[in-house]
Amino acid sequence: MKQISLTELKQWETTDKDFQLIDVREPSEHQFFNIGGSLIPLDQIMKNAAIINHDKPVVLYCKRGIRSQIAIQKLERKHPFDNLYNLQGGIFKLLLKQGSL
């Protein structure tokens, strides 16, 4: 599974790299704190596979990186994705830094 660090993600953002960002957490978590990704909760990821881009990198994230790994595994088993990245460790460090925990 492809991984991307928070530092690398920030570099992509600052260099205007074209990528899709997807939050697989629950709506309440997304509303409380998010980093700008589209919300597709893990339990809805397969129903929404059609809106996930095949032509550019797609970064999936959650709080600790576990749900996003599961989402990637599910998607890659059923669909021809080769462009999915898991945000290593999720956004936990950002939540800590912001005092949002």
Report on the structure:
By secondary structure, the protein is an alpha/beta fold. It has one domain: Oxidized Rhodanese, domain 1. It is about 35% helix and about 15% strand. The chain contains four helices and five strands, in the order E-H-E-H-E-E-H-E-H. It has helices spanning about 5-15, 25-30, 65-80, 90-100, and strands at about 1-5, 20-25, 40, 60, 85. Strands 1-5-4-2-3 form a five-stranded parallel beta sheet. The protein is globular. The mean pLDDT is about 95.
Q: Strand order within the widest sheet?
A: 1-5-4-2-3
| Global geometry | globular
Largest sheet descriptor: 5 strands, parallel
Count of separate structural domains: 1
- Order of secondary-structure elements: EHEHEEHEH
Approximate helicity band: 25-40%
Percent of residues in beta strands: 15-25%
Output the CATH homologous superfamily: Rhodanese-like domain
Radius of gyration: 13 Å
CATH architecture, please?
A: 3-Layer(aba) Sandwich
How would you name the oligomeric state of the polypeptide chains in this document? single chain
The CATH class, by name, is Alpha Beta
Based on secondary structure, the structural category is alpha/beta
The average pLDDT score comes to: 94
How far is the first residue's CA from the last residue's CA?
28 Å
